[in-house]
Specification:
Length: 260
C-alpha cells in the first residue's frame, strides 16, 4: 500500500475529502451533499476526542503480560521512524515513536539479560537505516549493544521476514516483540506466520480518559485516531495479502511484492 493511498484513506484527509464531495454535490440532490458534510464532521469530531480515539487504541492493544524472563530467548525491537538531518544531533536520530520502543527494549534487555535485535531499513536511498541509528542510541545512551541489526526492511511484514532469517540462523524461535501496544495487533501475526513464538512486549499503553476534556476534540486525540485507523487499515491489508500469497502458492504463481 503506497503512502499516498494510505494518507488519503486516513483521518483527517478522508473526512476533508468527504466534506469537499458533499459541498460539490449536484444541487439537485442537496440532501445527500449535506449528509456527507454532516457525517464527515461528526466522525472527525468523534475521532478527535481522546475518549473515542483512546477506545480504538485500547481495542487494538493486547492485554499487558507479566514478563518473567523464561518465556523467550531474544528481544526484537521494531523501528518507528527517523528524523533525518537533525540539527541538534547533527545527523539522523530517532523519532519519538522509535525512541519509546528503544527505551523499553533497553529496559527489558538489562532486566532479562537477553540478546537484542533491532529492525528497520533505510527510509532514503543515501541515508542510514533505522536499525543503525537504533543500535547507536541503544549503545551510546542506554549501554545496551544489539547482537543483530536487520537493516533492509521497509515495512512491518519485512521486519518479520528478515528478522526471522537472522534469528533462525542463531537457533532462536521465541521472542519478546517490542513495539507500541497498538502496533502489536498487526506485527505479531506476521512473526507467528513464520512459526515464531511471540510474547507481546508493548509500550505506550493508552490510559483511558473519562473527564469532560476527554470528550472535546484535541490534536492528541486526532493523532491517536490516525494511529488506530492506520493499524486497522494495515491489518486488513496484510490479511488480504496473506490470503493472496497462500492462493498464489497453491496455484504456482509468484507472490505479490511486500506491502508498504
Amino acid at each position: 500500500m503506497s503512502q499516498f493511498v494510505s494518507n488519503v484513506l486516513l483521518p483527517p484527509t478522508l473526512f476533508l475529502l468527504l466534506m469537499a464531495v458533499g459541498l460539490l454535490w449536484p444541487f439537485r440532490r442537496p440532501g445527500l451533499g449535506r449528509g456527507l458534510v454532516g457525517g464527515a464532521l461528526v466522525l472527525l469530531w468523534l475521532l478527535s476526542t481522546p475518549f473515542f480515539s483512546g477506545m480504538l487504541l485500547d481495542h487494538l492493544s493486547p492485554s499487558p503480560v507479566t514478563i518473567r524472563g523464561d518465556e523467550a530467548d531474544a528481544i526484537v525491537i521494531l523501528g518507528g521512524g527517523l528524523v533525518t538531518g537533525s540539527h541538534e544531533y547533527q545527523g539522523d536520530t530517532l523519532k519519538w515513536i522509535s525512541l519509546e520502543r528503544v527505551r523499553y527494549g533497553a529496559w527489558l534487555a538489562r532486566r532479562l539479560g537477553k540478546p537484542v535485535l533491532v529492525s528497520g531499513g533505510m527510509l532514503e536511498p543515501a541515508g542510514r537505516s533505522e536499525a543503525e541509528v537504533m543500535a547507536e542510541v541503544l549503545s551510546r545512551e542506554f549501554r545496551v549493544r544489539p547482537r543483530w541489526l536487520e537493516s533492509r526492511s521497509k515495512n512491518t511484514r519485512e521486519n518479520a521476514r528478515n528478522s526471522h532469517v537472522l534469528l533462525e540462523n542463531s537457533g532462536i524461535r521465541r521472542i519478546y516483540l517490542v513495539s507500541h501496544a497498538w502496533h502489536l495487533a498487526r506485527a505479531m501475526p506476521e512473526f507467528k506466520r513464520l512459526g515464531m513464538v511471540v510474547v507481546p512486549a508493548g509500550t505506550g499503553y493508552h490510559a483511558a480518559e473519562t473527564t469532560l476534556y476527554s470528550f472535546l476534540p484535541s490534536a492528541s486525540g486526532l493523532m491517536n485516531a490516525y494511529f488506530a485507523c492506520h493499524e486497522m487499515l494495515g491489518i486488513v491489508w496484510y490479511s488480504l495479502r496473506h490470503h493472496f500469497d497462500v492462493w498464489t502458492a497453491k496455484q504456482g504463481f509468484a507472490s505479490m511484492s511486500a506491502p508498504a
